[in-house]
């Protein structure tokens, strides 16, 4: 192996670029949906009616304790048997979102449970409705508490999106497979793509820390750090 | 016990007038936590403008009683009428009552992610639907009243305990409550900060606010209370005007408690 053996891989940059765009899209959409739905699930699992709590518990336990590959195969190959046929990209988005929602639910729930009961009582005594108390009073500090854990989970989703290649979604890993089989440069193709993932993960982490400073912590973090 | 400066004479509580009705009326209230009978046959009428101090040993049900008044806890028997509205499971009524009743807690319970100003304006904006500018002005008015307007843009974690409790009082006042409940507002404070909070409460009393205070600050009780209540084991054991309550307690348990509290 020498540097020139990478040339074949770099010649395929347009497909690498397409794969990169797909990976970024899968990650951003499922991250956004997963955090929003995870928040709602956390709320439901703590304050919802009993049946809803049990449903959410079961859902979370199932998706946190089965392999992601099995989940994505079920959604892509299994659901058509039940009459729901999804194209690969949609199936991938659904699988990533459902998986992330389960983890996000647990993370946010932990943050909410660490909030003293007095916060909710103070909000209630001021006349805020339960939903207002949840979103205005309980949730923001809960998010601040768990944002580092959430950041790790979102990076894991970025890396897990590689498994979507298994249902032929043309993301980065899929393109690496294609390049490898076209050029027989297996090692080089995977090295290049692995380094791209590394770069993406670092960038994504920085972006999430910016999101944290801008939307999650607000002035509060900078004030508290003084 | 802190020594409060003598203040202007407090107006006596308004007499009950048949037309206006009582501010708070508890009749035959009972509550259980599982098998544990925490409130037993509580009867209590609080007139408008009246200031009542509740004392009693830890675990006697003082917090539970006042928390039933704004429905942070649910009672199982008897009736509670606040400002003419009977507390039931009707959420509308609970909301209505909570808008009229302010509460201060032992541990302040300020919202840590909001500035002092935002702590004060949250409920006026979201519950009273007040425009932000108006809510800011209202908040600054009450911050000035509790003498910390300069802290408006800080966060709760940057304030001393005494300042935080004054913010909590101002936050409750921003909802223009007719009744204020205090649950041991000075118990979590360092001794040197107790006075500033009690002074705030005294000035509130002077303005004729209806107040129910769970506190062991007997100096405060003597100075502002119309009546002092002694609770034990979920019951109101004794209730009297402060002078008589302290100088001539009727029940052995009250005497014992007072001797412990006053340290004779
Ligand atoms: N949520 C609860 N569940 C079970 N028991 C409780 C609960 N809250 C309070 N208690 C019990 O009820 C009794 C009265 O409590 P509380 O009203 O807080 O007393 P106080 O304020 O007079 O110290 C105590 O014995 C306490 O342990
Ligand atoms: Mg108590």
From TrEMBL, chain A:
Keyword check for Plastid: no
ABC transmembrane type-1 domain span: 20-208
Keywords: Cell membrane, Membrane, Transmembrane, Transmembrane helix, Transport
Main subcellular localisation: membrane
Family of the protein in this entry: Belongs to the binding-protein-dependent transport system permease family. HisMQ subfamily.
Organism from which the protein derives: Ancylobacter vacuolatus
Protein name: Polar amino acid transport system permease protein
PANTHER family: ABC TRANSPORTER PERMEASE PROTEIN (PTHR30614:SF35), MEMBRANE COMPONENT OF AMINO ACID ABC TRANSPORTER (PTHR30614)
Topological type in the membrane: Multi-pass membrane protein
Pfam family, any one: BPD_transp_1
Compartments it resides in: Cell inner membrane; Cell membrane
Chain ranges passing through the membrane: 20-46, 67-86, 154-174, 186-204
Top-level taxon in the UniProt lineage: Bacteria
From TrEMBL, chain B:
Keyword Hydrolase: yes
PROSITE patterns: ABC_TRANSPORTER_1, ABC_TRANSPORTER_2
EC category name: hydrolase
Domain ABC transporter as annotated: residue spans: 24-258
Entry EC number(s): 3.6.3.-
GO molecular function: ATP binding; hydrolase activity
Keyword Nucleotide-binding part of the UniProt annotation: yes
InterPro entries from the UniProt entry: AAA+_ATPase, ABC_ATPase_HisP-typ, ABC_transporter-like_ATP-bd, ABC_transporter-like_CS, MetN_ABC_transporter-like, P-loop_NTPase
Keywords: ATP-binding, Hydrolase, Nucleotide-binding, Transport
Highest taxon of the lineage: Bacteria
Membership in a protein family: Belongs to the ABC transporter superfamily.
Record protein name field: General L-amino acid transport system ATP-binding protein
Species whose genome carries this gene: Ancylobacter vacuolatus
Lineage: Bacteria, Pseudomonadati, Pseudomonadota, Alphaproteobacteria, Hyphomicrobiales
């Amino acid at each position: 192996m020498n540097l020139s053996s990478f040339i074949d891989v770099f010649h395929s940059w347009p497909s690498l670029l397409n794969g990169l765009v797909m990976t970024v899209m899968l990650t951003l959409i499922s991250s956004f949906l997963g955090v929003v739905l995870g928040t709602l699930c956390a709320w439901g699992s703590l304050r919802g009616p009993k049946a809803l709590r049990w449903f959410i518990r079961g859902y979370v336990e199932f998706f946190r304790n089965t392999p992601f590959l099995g989940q994505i195969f079920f959604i892509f190959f299994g659901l058509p048997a039940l009459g729901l046929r999804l194209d690969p990209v949609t199936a991938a988005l659904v699988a990533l979102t459902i998986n992330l929602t389960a983890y996000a639910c647990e993370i946010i729930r932990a943050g909410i449970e660490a909030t003293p009961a007095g916060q909710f009582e103070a909000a209630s005594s001021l006349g805020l409705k339960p939903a207002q108390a949840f979103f205005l009073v309980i949730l923001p500090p809960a998010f601040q508490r768990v944002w580092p854990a959430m950041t790790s989970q979102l990076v894991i989703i970025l890396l897990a999106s590689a498994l979507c290649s298994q249902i032929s979604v043309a993301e980065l890993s899929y393109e690496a497979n294609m390049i490898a089989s076209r050029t027989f440069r297996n090692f080089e193709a995977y090295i290049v793509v692995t380094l791209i993932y590394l770069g993406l993960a670092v960038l994504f982490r920085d972006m999430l820390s910016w999101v944290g400073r801008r939307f999650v912590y607000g002035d509060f973090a900078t004030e508290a750090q003084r | 016990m802190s020594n409060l400066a003598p203040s202007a004479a407090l107006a006596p509580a308004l007499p009950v007038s048949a037309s206006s009705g009582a501010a708070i009326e508890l009749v035959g209230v009972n509550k259980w936590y599982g098998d544990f009978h925490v409130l037993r046959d509580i009867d209590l009428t609080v007139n408008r403008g009246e200031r009542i101090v509740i004392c009693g040993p830890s675990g006697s049900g003082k917090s539970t009683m006042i928390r039933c008044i704004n429905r942070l806890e649910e009672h199982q028997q008897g009736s509670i009428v606040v400002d003419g509205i009977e507390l039931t499971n009707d959420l509308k009524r609970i909301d209505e009552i909570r808008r009229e009743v302010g509460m201060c807690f032992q541990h302040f319970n300020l919202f840590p992610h909001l500035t002092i100003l935002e702590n004060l304006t949250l409920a006026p904006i979201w519950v009273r639907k007040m425009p932000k500018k108006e809510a800011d002005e209202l908040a600054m008015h009450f911050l000035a009243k509790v003498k910390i307007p300069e802290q408006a843009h800080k966060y709760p974690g940057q304030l001393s305990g005494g300042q935080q409790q004054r913010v909590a009082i101002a936050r409750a006042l921003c909802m223009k409550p007719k009744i204020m409940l205090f649950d041991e507002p000075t118990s979590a404070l360092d001794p040197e900060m107790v006075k500033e909070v009690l002074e705030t409460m005294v000035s509130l009393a002077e303005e004729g606010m209806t107040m129910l205070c769970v506190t062991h600050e007997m100096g405060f009780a003597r100075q502002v209370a119309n009546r002092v209540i002694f609770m034990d084991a979920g019951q109101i054991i004794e209730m009297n005007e402060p002078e008589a309550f302290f100088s001539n307690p009727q029940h052995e348990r009250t005497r014992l408690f007072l001797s412990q509290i006053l340290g004779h």
